[in-house]
Write a structure and sequence with these properties.
Layout lengths: L4 H11 L9 H6 L17 E4 L2 E2 L32 H18 L8 E6 L6 E7 L14 E11 L2 E4 L3 E4 L7 E6 L5 E5 L5 E4 L3 E2 L5 E2 L3 E2 L6 E5 L10 E4 L9 E2 L2 H5 L11 E5 L4 H4 L3 H8 L2 H4 L17 E7 L5 E7 L6 E8 L6 E8 L7 E4 L6 E14 L2 E14 L3 E7 L6 E4 L2
Parallel strand pairs: 8-16, 17-18
Antiparallel strand pairs: 1-2, 1-6, 3-4, 4-5, 5-6, 5-7, 8-9, 9-14, 10-13, 10-15, 11-12, 18-19, 19-20, 20-21, 22-23, 23-24, 23-25, 25-26
Keywords: Membrane, Transmembrane, Transmembrane helix
């Protein structure tokens, strides 16, 4: 699942009205794709570590304003759940850690913290805690919902407990907040909070030969307020995904520490090279600014829905992002675009459609950018074959033989009659590939 810059800034305002955006945040977020970025409607705040009496929490302050506000859902009225909820020793230790974290961050809370869930996991004891705030500024736009509480998961770290990302909770409840967290040194334990709605889980992300996303979901089985699932290690990328029924855009189940995993400061994450090409004749249908036409006429969330992992959280590993604007022999707009997640292989998709109407995907391929000819996409209805190899020159031969015909460099749309393509890289010998 991805969001655009406006969504990112809106999420940051809701989650961290007290903080400025980290330098380069949107550049990092954009690395999940050219026009489609990473990370659902998320939150970002200081993680707090408390071991014994020690604390290393960051400092943040809440904006003021507003009278008393209550959370719409009866979150504070429900009894604590989980197999450690009745363990007085653990709860006392948990609340000491929580109060110390809130004091260190000047969070402006009031009343007693409420342990929503506390239980044992293969990664050690964990919990989810909420506490009302003393002030209630508007934290959502549009809608004007006000801040009502703060909440966070608490995980085991060494011999202590760590308060994870502290999130603002609006008066409308937890629907926009993280309701799951990855626990353990290898992030291989998934804790999912039970908020009274059915949840579906997928542990693996795969791709079909044409680049479409393949996921298998199974129902999450809750017990006493939460579910604890064993998952593959999620240290370098996130393959798990969760959503609530019925499965609309706002039914994502957010992971509390997704950004902590994806944007590790010490890990170098280069910006992906953007390769953009306008094929001969394309100006007649695309005009002088093809990207503006895409924004007006290409409904990517719908057109490319099968190629996006709408429930997952991803970034880009620096692999190229190719965009090609062209025109098909029958006069339709041709768009070639790239979707790339983490270190998964890139997927290049070709879309066709009449000018002024939504473009639809007609072909896709999983790409190996190290290949001599990374992109070779045959279009339907005799519209030719798209080829692309950055820095390479192309030639082709047609049915009936004859000499090689020039097709330009970097990217080309070869005619349907072409039976062979010659690729001459910027370095190295020329190679030929069949097109039939």
């Amino acid at each position: 699942m991805t969001i655009d810059d406006v969504d990112v800034r809106g999420a940051l305002r809701r989650a961290t009205a007290h903080l400025g955006e980290p330098p380069g945040l949107l550049d990092d977020v954009r690395r999940g794709g050219r026009r489609r970025v990473v990370r659902r409607r998320g939150v970002l705040a200081a993680g707090l570590l408390v071991v014994g009496a020690a604390s290393t929490g960051g400092v943040f302050r809440w904006a003021g304003g507003g009278g008393r506000v209550e959370v719409a859902a009866p979150l504070f009225d429900q009894p604590s759940r989980g197999d450690l909820a009745g363990n007085e020793v653990f709860v006392r230790r948990l609340l000491e850690v929580w109060r110390q974290a809130m004091a260190d961050t000047d969070s402006g809370v009031r009343g007693a913290p409420h342990v929503v869930w506390a239980g044992g996991t293969p990664a050690g004891p964990a919990a989810f805690v909420m506490q009302r705030t003393a002030e209630h500024p508007v934290v959502a736009s549009p809608g004007g919902a006000r801040l009502a509480a703060v909440a966070a998961f608490v995980e085991s770290v060494g011999n202590g407990l760590r308060v994870m990302t502290v999130e603002q909770v609006g008066e409308d409840g937890l629907d926009g907040n993280s309701q799951a967290a990855l626990l353990g040194e290898n992030r291989d334990v998934l804790l999912v909070l039970d908020v009274g709605r059915s949840v579906e889980f997928s542990g693996d992300l795969r791709f079909a030969a044409d680049g479409r996303v393949v996921r298998t979901f199974v129902p999450v089985r809750f017990r006493d307020g939460a579910a604890v699932l064993a998952v593959p290690p999620q240290r370098e990328k996130i393959t798990v995904a969760l959503f609530r029924r019925p499965g609309g855009r706002r039914d994502l189940v957010h992971l509390s520490n997704a950004w902590e995993i994806l944007f590790v400061p010490r890990r170098h994450r280069p910006s992906p090279p953007l390769h953009e090409h306008v094929l001969p004749g394309a100006e007649a249908v695309w005009g002088g600014e093809p990207s503006e036409v895409v924004q007006r006429y290409v409904d990517e969330p719908d057109s490319l829905a099968d190629f996006y992992d709408r429930w997952g959280t991803h970034t880009n590993d620096g692999s190229p992002l190719l965009t090609v604007y062209g025109v098909s022999p029958d006069g339709r707009l041709l768009l070639v675009t790239t979707v790339q997640y983490d270190d998964h292989p890139s997927r290049v998709i070709a879309l066709l459609g009449p000018a002024g109407e939504p473009l639809r995907p007609v072909a896709g391929v999983v790409v190996d950018w190290s290949a001599v000819l990374p992109v070779r996409l045959r279009l339907p209805d005799g519209q030719g074959t798209v080829v692309a190899a950055e820095g390479a020159a192309f030639g082709y031969r047609v049915v009936g033989g004859g000499g090689w015909r020039d097709a330009g460099r970097d990217a080309a749309l070869l005619p349907a009659a072409a039976v062979e393509v010659r690729v001459t890289p910027s370095t190295g010998p020329a190679r030929t590939f069949p097109l039939r």
